[in-house]
Amino acid sequence: MPAIPSLGGLRGRGGNRAKAAAPRPIPVPLSAYVVDCAVYVEGKRLPGRWTHSEAIKEVRKRHAGFVWIGLHEPDAEQIQGVADTFGLHELAVEDALEAHQRPKLERYDDTLFMVVKTVRYVEHESPTTANEIVETGELMVFLGRDFVITVRHGNHSGLARLRRDLDDDPERLALGPAAVVHAIADHVVDHYLEVTSRIESDIDEIEAQVFAPRSLVSAEQIYLMKREVLELRRAVMPLGTPVSRLAEGYTRLVPDEVRSYFRDVADHLATVSERVAAFDELLSTLVDATVAKISLQQNTDMRKITSWAAIITVPTMGAGIYGMNFDYMPELHWKFGYPLAVGVIFAICLLLYRIFRKNGWL
């Protein structure tokens, strides 16, 4: 019979019970985060499935083409494998892991790192009842001499359709990985234009209701719309400087042929910025108009309450005087005293009503 271990054998030093080893997390393969990985040579996509290491080896063996890898919310361990293969800077990798970055463009040695905010218009029945109008996400782009890596945060900013369109346009991809960066920036800014057009329609609807008689639009709802426009502004405004720098020859990674395209993106972005600034000013004006309208309505209500209180005071005063039970009061024992008192009270109330009505209080 085997010996049963004593209780002391189950304890560590100092009498502490031995702790069970924490379970190690199950490693997730990089393929779970890779949306697509492709090799492009002379603007044409090479057939087959590629890993990130095999793709860059193929490009550098050919001394032509580039790699485009798309990642969706990778963790630190998985993106580190890509960073080691492509030589990405650790600060840029750290930023790519963290969402809620502001749009920016940074250069690390021979690699560019760009952050852009993506936006999506949230469908709703009416802007006067909606709780959310704009939803934002993020795209981080690494641009190198022979590669472009996109890291996506959020579920609405997919680039699958854009990739398919570029696959059908080899002349454009033949310009190199910078053409992909331009296509991404152009794609994002086009969505800005679409979202601002939808928001403009919402603001027009709110404006019509604010100045309509007896409208039910509250200042809180307009302020909520203003907050949504502010979120859009945070996505749009900081992007102007990175796009302008790419259009002005900030780096040799962007050839002259692609820089001219970035100028077009900068023009569209300027249009969006002007719209967003106008939205902010208009919503501020609508908030002030709504508050003034509420104050005016409250003053009107107070006038009505005061007018009716003055009218009701007359019969109250008469009832109070004749209810004091004195024997010697005017016309107290006269047969027509009661109808006379009621008639006088009614006449005074009618006179007050006509005065208040003439002055617009009722």
UniProtKB/TrEMBL annotation:
One Gene Ontology term of the molecular function aspect: cobalt ion transmembrane transporter activity
User: Could you name the Gene Ontology cellular component terms for this entry?
Assistant: plasma membrane
Q: Which UniProt keywords apply?
A: Cell membrane, Ion transport, Magnesium, Membrane, Transmembrane, Transmembrane helix, Transport
Task: Identify one Pfam family in the record.
Answer: CorA
Task: Give the matching InterPro entries.
Answer: CorA_cytoplasmic_dom, CorA_TM1_TM2, Mg/Co-transport_prot_CorA, MgTranspt_CorA/ZnTranspt_ZntB
Region entry Disordered: which residue ranges? Answer: 1-21
What membrane topology does this protein have?
Multi-pass membrane protein
User: What catalytic reaction does the record list?
Assistant: Mg(2+)(in) = Mg(2+)(out)
List membrane-spanning regions.
305-324, 336-356
Q: What is its main location?
A: membrane
Q: Which family does it belong to?
A: Belongs to the CorA metal ion transporter (MIT) (TC 1.A.35) family.
Q: What does this protein do?
A: Mediates influx of magnesium ions. Alternates between open and closed states. Activated by low cytoplasmic Mg(2+) levels. Inactive when cytoplasmic Mg(2+) levels are high.
Note the NCBIfam families from the entry. corA (TIGR00383)
Q: Could you tell me what this protein is called?
A: Magnesium transport protein CorA
Q: Which organism is it from?
A: Amycolatopsis saalfeldensis
